[in-house]
Amino acid sequence: MEGMTPPPPMSLLAELTHRCPLQCPYCSNPLALEPKARELSTEDWQRVLDEAAVLGVLQVHFSGGEPMARKDLPDLVRQASRAGLYTNLITSGVLLDRDSLGRLADAGLDHVQLSFQDVDPQQAEIIGGMKGAQSRKIAAARLIAEDGMPLTLNFVIHRLNAERVPAMFDLAEELGARRVEIAHTQYYGWGLKNRSALLPTRQQLEDTERAVAAARTRFGNRMAIDFVTPDYYADEPKPCMGGWGQRFLNVTPSGRVLPCHAAETIPGVTFPTVHDASLGDIWEKSELFGLFRGTDWMPEPCRGCDRREIDWGGCRCQALALTGHAEAADPVCQRSTDRKLVDAAITEAATATETFVYRRYGD
Ligand code: SF4
Ligand code: FES
Fold it and tell me: Residue 152 is inside which H or E element, if any?
């Protein structure tokens, strides 16, 4: 792939804001949250959405923080829709009501992905750090189902809620979801900070796998089920983002353009912004997107490995966070000499007490 024009990305993650009424300790946002004053304007985002469509992006995921904290969200959805992009809203649902849903539907919103912290309201509030959040989410899900808009429920799984995965499927059925994501916490940003309190045990993982298999049999084609395993228990890493600079791009609230949500941790590189160049130029020509694209950058053991074009060496940000070297093999990999770091984290988590550092906007 080196030296050639890369094919266009499939998806744009538009991180509209880091503002959010919830405080989840596994949030994938960076530890340093962007203030409102640095957020892109409506006009900037509208231009970025047009540039994404020209580049060949097919889907835009409006995310955050809580994207509904941006009052101009319907304007952005309308712009994306007019540009021919499939529009997905990734939301906690706590700011959604009949009026705001109506405005989004009129603007052409195609799909909503609603996140739940748990099925147990008390536990959900402990994780999300917001009183009354669960009832608001359930009300939001009912409004979406009433409207007929396709709905995905997303549950983030960790040590404190893994035992309730079967009840999560029951809730999804009751709320009319067409798709459910049972996604284990990923350990970047706030998740890495709280890893010891969140990492499930191997027994919990096995129980969750059984619950997912049972739900697949029970629902058949009536409900699609996506299952994201905790990669610390895997022998081989995931192909993070489908390969660096191959399928996705992220735009942060202040307009940095990144190959993944954690790329701002990569040292010694200039981060391109939507103020400096078009998305197309950034995708094709920037140093950042070329840094780990393809396989030429790989050292051993990835360089000589027959999985190098399957997992693309795993996750660069996880390699950096755990080993201090972004070009190292993902330490989840059994062939990595750093695998012992992952095994030590599992051992440490098994005896850790469950106290969190909450992600608090404005702290
Ligand atoms: Fe993937 Fe590298 Fe491990 Fe091979 S050695 S499985 S390419 S991380
Ligand atoms: Fe950055 Fe995986 S999160 S490469």
Answer: strand 151-157
Cα 196 to ligand 2 centre (Å): 20
- Read off the pLDDT of each residue in 259-285 and give the average, rounded to a whole number: 96
Write down the ipTM of this complex: 0.91
- Substitution site in 250, 297, 317, 325 for ligand 2 pocket (most atoms within 8 Å of beta carbon): 317
Q: How far is the CA of 73 from the centre of ligand 1 (A)?
A: 40
DSSP letter for 33, please.
Answer: P
Q: How high is the pLDDT of residue 206?
A: 96
- Residue 93: burial class (beta carbons within 10 Å; 0-12, 13-18, 19+): buried
Structure confidence by residue, pLDDT tens digits, 49-81:
999 999 999 999 999 999 999 999 999 999 999
SS3 75: helix
Residues with CB under 6 A from ligand 1: 236-237, 301-302, 305, 307-308, 311, 313-314, 329-330, 333, 335
What phi and psi, each to the nearest 5 degrees, are found at residue 294?
75, -145
Ligand closest to Cα of 309 equals 1
Token code pair at residue 195: 């890893």
Nearest to 105 by CA among 135, 74, 138: 74
**Ligand 1 geometric centre to CA of 239 (Å):** 10
Other CB atoms within a 10 A radius of the CB of residue 297 amount to: 17
Predicted structure pTM score:
0.94
Q: What is the DSSP string of 300-348?
A: TTTTT-TTTTTTTTS-HHHHHHHHS-TTSPPTTSTTSTTHHHHHHHHHH
- Nearest Cα neighbor of 184 from 163, 159, 207, 216 is 159
CA of 248 to the centre of ligand 1 (A): 21
Q: What are the b/e assignments for 169-207, b being 16+ CB within 10 Å?
A: bebbbebebebbbbbbbbbbbbbbbbbbbbbbeeebbeb
Q: Tell me: pLDDT of 333 over 70.
A: yes
Integer CA distances (angstroms), 266 to 44, 45, 107, 315, 316, in order: 25, 25, 37, 12, 8
